[in-house]
Amino acid sequence: MGQNKLKIQDADKLNILCLHGYRQNGDGFRSKTGSFRKFVKNYANFTYITADHFAKPLNEGDEIDENQRSWWFNKEDGSFKGTNENSAPAVGFQESLKLVEKVWNEGNFQGILGFSQGACFVSLICSMSERNLTAIKPRFAMLAAGFRSGSLVHRGCYENKITIPSLHVYGMNDEIIPNTYSEKLRDAFEAPQFITHEGGHYFPATANEKQTYINFFQDQLQAYLEDREMKVNGVTTQNEAEEEEVES
Questions:
Q1: 10 is annotated as an active-site residue
Q2: What does pTM read for this prediction?
Q3: Contact (CB, 8 A) for 113 and 19
Q4: Residue 53 CB partners (closer than 8 Å, separation 6+)
Q5: In the annotation, is 187 catalytic?
Q6: pLDDT per residue as tens digits for the range 211-246
């Protein structure tokens, strides 16, 4: 789909719900993705939300930093680590899921995007959506520096391939979430698109990624608009048929 073939009004753009990483918040994540949003501003609007849970201070005895949040905790000490696996807890997950469900239901969202812990969360939401375990129904997902949840209660989320269209982005030199973890998450999806970069644990937005981002959001927007038009035409056809039946 060529960029010049679509006349896109703001009301026609995709609406994307964005989930930040561990020790981040919605405002901080938004500021870190400014260049990315500029790349795809013709196709999508982005809404950033903040988790309710406060991350545990890095040093014992330090005060809680209200700007550092977490969607849930998977370590016995009440913290979170993406590479923590095998029977890890998921303390606070249900509360965060309810928060995201509330925001999703109040908006008109088509896609969901996450970074690091947020990307892990996105994968769980996609799996739960396909099994009708959540009211969140994303048409597509974007996951940056993601990984599979190691919590025992989430193990079933990766038993079957997730069919929701997805774009995965991860760094080959990420020391926080090694690329093998992101590759394992990528492989949990059916026919995933992906792009790698040579950097570490961040959301890249350079010329190297620009066209991949644009192509992905163009494709998702076209599919969304075509489906919407078909539904409108279907309703119109049905109404016309009902009117003809009444007249006859």
A1: no
A2: 0.91
A3: yes
A4: 69, 70, 71, 72, 73, 92, 95, 96
A5: no
A6: 999 999 999 999 999 999 998 887 655 555 555 565
